[in-house]
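Bit of a strange request maybe. I'm writing a small parser for structure token strings and I need a real example to test against, not something I typed by hand. Could someone generate the tokens for this chain?
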Amino acid sequence: MIGSVRGRITHKAAPQLMVEAGGIGYELEAPLSTFLNLPAVGEEVQLLTHLVVREDAHVLYAFGSEAERRLFRSLIKVSGVGPKIALALLSGMQVSAFAACVQNKDVTLLTRIPGIGRKTAERLILELQDRFKGAGATEMDRPAGQPPAATPEHEAYDALLALGYRPAEATRLLQAAAQHAGGATSTEELIRRALQGAVRE
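Reply from user aminoacidic:
Good idea to test on real output. This should exercise your parser:
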């Protein structure tokens, strides 16, 4: 997995750009929220990336902040939402604005984004509401390179998402695991108890 690219911008035409690093030109696609903050062609830039592997191509997406990349990764896990829609959403609103939409269940505002119909907007709110519950603008818009507070709960939650669990499922399993643990415990113990709970269901 290519996690980031640092090099000189040799070409940019929204949403695509090319960054040359170590003699290799990386073709990237970026949301407008990232693209509009890029320096001029010929200048150096560092971007976080996410690689999407398709049958016909490997596409590398670029982001100016960790919050944008986290949201992109959350979006493409939602049924019916692919990288194209995720990129459109990130191009149409800030991460904190999306979090507010989810928290307020604002379907109308989400449907103003090209490619997002009412059913897709409702699905986004339903599947991501637990992930953004209580998330403030400071946490959501954290600059690249500044990770969130690594509590055992956060680490266990991210691990369950990486294993393919949906946000709502991961939250429910961890809440049950914490109750059975009867107090503070390690990341590994929370994950183990959560997976045991999933097997019993």
